[in-house]
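Quick review question:
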């Protein structure tokens, strides 16, 4: 008989076949009529009735929250169509009428499934019942919920140490589910709670906690209405946070200046045609970026040091007119050290490593002074570098110099991706939580909470690889495809005794498994959640610290899918048994009881069950808004940093991985990247035209990509070379296809975020 281990080989990478590239003009603006057209094409493909019904409830105060990005909704009245193109795609995807039943797994082994693309997997539909992959099988087969819970419990309870179990979380889990999940992990005995934050905004949280005492943003949507300058750094809002474009459009129309900082001139940074405005139908669009600084990859630190240098020079000629000296004296420390450090950096050095001229830097700096409220936004283009923490801290330095914190129209805005990634962290999904949280948890639930820090994502992969972790449980997500060093990660997962995926749809993590594997299907946001305590709702936290309810309305895709909270409680009860005093089944039967417990453990959630009924929810407290900094001495420290450029040998380039337009995180909705002019193909690498000429590479020529790190090489084969407007020495390609190139040991200082935006590569012609 062929075993699971025999079939579970070479399944980690998508097929290398090309799908028939077509090209169009690179877009000069985002959204417009094409966005509406594409939205409804996706809805029609997945099921017009469920899809259309869902869109009308999406992001409404009495509806459900988008499972795509975490950009907030307006506090006041909302449009009847409060969604964007990618929100429509996400909603159509989860509301699909397509089903995966047991016959699908009868007909398809894991090797059969793995031979298809990630897009094909997405199109198969919703998972409808629990499935198990046994050690002696190449096919998943049905399993009852009780048997599935007992299997997880048996494997967990057989481990010599609780620290040999890993509990991963995606950013789509609700607050209630996340709270139960971390509660179970800690009552079981471990802080091994790696999550998607480790791979994206961990650098932001680390940078901000060190300087201002809070690891998240400090602005609201109202601040965007007051800001006079908005920096958008290392971010592609047109694809990744489309509803942000409305806020940027509004700011521009009232006179604000937008400064875009990015190696690629993305459509969503150039202009926006609001699809709900009649003028957009006629082709009218609003220009967005007044200044576009096309930095080299990882040129952000020298750029912002250059802006500070220009401000210091202006301050010398007009003392007290540029920097906010009063704020600096009252709320900060280390000013002189920063000033002296910046003065020593030459303009030649700044120009060389940022790729931006002194003239352009000084022109942007001239927009700023102590009377100018401004906001800085950033995303993965800032966070996924070795020096990411220090680079973000240079942005914070700029705000401290100008007193641009704790006043209207000013502040910091790390723009989150996953819809509840911020809420999950607030709920305690963190491998190194503060003592105050653990102490409160211990007092409320009466068990000894472990204090030893757990594994983050990278150390979790290494723990599995070295047999120090043997059970892997994922609350959502697609761990294999989201993680760096795909083949190394696959080897790690295969060494586990059991891998468990709490999922809604099929993905590549279902075909790269441990000795045994479980798929536990859960409800989606748009579906009704009915428990023994009646119909339930859950809550989420958006990028700006608003906690609000979300409640589905559709009939569940199957009678055998369960809610996240129900699944977690079932695993917890089976594992912990009578030794646990936590009323797992009562909590999962009535989520208001979970919220009662959250209220007692986490500050800011006082009177949770009453306040959450307010239309639009409530804001969590943010001390920085009151200019209170929870750092040693109570003063926000300026941070000096030396920029250390990547060392490139002859012929090497720096690659950044990113998403296509028909993609959200690792989910592939389609094969088009409409804004960048690429249709029906994902295996492409974007290159500077002169870099292509130097290497004798022609347009659409197949090439192989090799990454280089500490003497190691990793390979990704068969990509089409595409000339694109980007700085020399830079390249870009889609993930997850190129995650195989990211070394597991290449991580950001302090945050340990994989360096997905700074991969040293060479390219060569494919055989």
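Suggested answer, residue by residue:
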């Amino acid at each position: 008989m062929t075993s699971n281990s025999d079939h579970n080989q070479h399944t980690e990478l998508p097929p290398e076949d090309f799908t028939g590239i077509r090209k169009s003009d690179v877009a000069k603006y985002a959204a417009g009529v094409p966005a509406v057209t594409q939205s409804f094409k996706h809805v029609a493909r997945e099921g017009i009735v469920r899809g259309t019904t869902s869109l009308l409830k999406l992001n409404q105060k009495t509806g459900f929250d988008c499972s795509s990005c975490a950009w907030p909704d307006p506090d006041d009245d909302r449009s009847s169509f409060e969604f964007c193109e990618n929100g429509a795609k996400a909603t159509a995807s989860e509301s699909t009428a397509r089903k995966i039943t047991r016959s699908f797994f009868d007909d398809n082994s894991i090797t059969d499934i793995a031979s298809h693309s990630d897009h094909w997997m997405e199109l198969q539909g919703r998972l409808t019942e629990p499935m198990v992959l046994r050690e002696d099988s190449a096919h998943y087969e049905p399993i009852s919920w009780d048997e599935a819970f007992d299997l997880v419990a048996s494997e967990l309870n057989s481990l010599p140490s609780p620290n040999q179990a890993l509990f991963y979380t995606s950013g789509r889990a609700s607050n209630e589910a996340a709270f139960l999940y971390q509660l179970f992990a800690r009552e079981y005995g471990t802080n091994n709670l790696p999550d998607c934050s480790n791979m994206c905004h961990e650098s932001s949280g680390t940078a901000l906690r060190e300087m201002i005492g809070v690891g998240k943003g400090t602005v609201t949507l109202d601040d965007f209405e007051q800001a006079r300058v908005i920096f958008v750094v290392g971010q592609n809002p047109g694809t990744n946070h489309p509803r942000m474009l409305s806020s940027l459009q509004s700011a521009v129309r009232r006179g604000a200046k937008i400064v875009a900082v990015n190696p690629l001139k993305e459509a969503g940074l150039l202009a926006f045609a609001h699809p709900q405005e009649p003028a957009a139908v006629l082709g009218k669009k609003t220009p967005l970026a007044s200044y576009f600084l096309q930095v080299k990859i990882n040129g952000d630190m020298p750029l912002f040091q250059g802006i500070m240098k220009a401000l210091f020079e202006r301050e010398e000629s007009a003392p007290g007119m540029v920097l906010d000296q009063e704020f600096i004296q009252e709320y900060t420390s280390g000013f002189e050290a920063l000033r002296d450090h910046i003065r020593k950096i030459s303009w030649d050095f700044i120009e060389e490593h940022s790729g931006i001229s002194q003239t352009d830097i000084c022109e942007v700096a001239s927009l700023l002074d102590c009377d100018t409220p401004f906001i800085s936004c950033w995303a993965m283009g800032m966070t996924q570098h070795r020096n990411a923490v220090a680079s973000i801290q240079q942005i914070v330095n700029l705000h401290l110099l100008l007193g641009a914190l704790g006043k209207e129209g000013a502040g910091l805005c790390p723009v989150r991706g996953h819809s509840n990634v911020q809420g999950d962290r607030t709920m305690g999904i963190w491998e190194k939580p503060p003592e105050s949280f653990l102490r409160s948890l211990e007092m409320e639930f009466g068990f000894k909470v472990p204090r030893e820090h757990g594994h983050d994502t990278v150390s979790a992969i290494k723990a599995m690889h070295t047999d120090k972790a043997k059970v892997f449980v994922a609350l959502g997500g697609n761990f294999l495809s989201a993680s760096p060093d795909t083949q190394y990660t696959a080897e790690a997962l295969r060494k586990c005794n059991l891998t468990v995926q709490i999922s809604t749809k099929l993905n590549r993590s279902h075909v790269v498994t441990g000795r045994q594997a479980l798929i536990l299907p859960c409800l989606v946001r748009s579906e009704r959640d009915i428990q023994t305590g009646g119909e339930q709702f859950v809550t989420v936290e958006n990028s700006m610290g608003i906690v609000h309810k979300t409640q589905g309305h559709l009939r569940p895709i199957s009678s055998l899918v369960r809610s996240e909270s129900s699944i977690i409680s079932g695993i917890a009860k089976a594992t912990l048994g009578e030794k646990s005093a936590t009323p797992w089944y009562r909590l999962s039967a009535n989520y208001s009881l979970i919220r009662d417990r959250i209220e007692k453990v986490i500050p800011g959630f006082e009177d949770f069950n009453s306040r959450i009924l307010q239309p639009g929810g409530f804001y969590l407290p943010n001390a920085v808004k009151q200019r209170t900094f929870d750092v040693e001495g109570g003063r926000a420290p300026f941070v000096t940093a030396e920029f250390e450029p990547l060392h490139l040998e002859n012929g090497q380039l720096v690659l950044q991985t990113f998403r296509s337009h028909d993609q959200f995180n690792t989910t592939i909705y389609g094969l088009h990247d409409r804004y960048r002019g690429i249709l029906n193909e994902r295996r492409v690498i974007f290159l500077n035209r002169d870099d292509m000429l130097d290497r004798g590479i022609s347009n659409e020529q197949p090439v192989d990509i090799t990454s280089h790190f500490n003497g190691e090489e990793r390979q990704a084969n068969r990509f089409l070379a595409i000339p694109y407007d980007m700085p020399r020495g830079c390249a870009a390609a889609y993930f997850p296809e190129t995650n195989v190139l990211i070394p597991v040991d290449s991580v950001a200082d302090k945050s340990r975020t994989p360096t997905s935006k700074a991969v040293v590569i060479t390219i060569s012609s494919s055989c």
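Why it works: The mean pLDDT is 92. The two ends are 37 Å apart (CA to CA).
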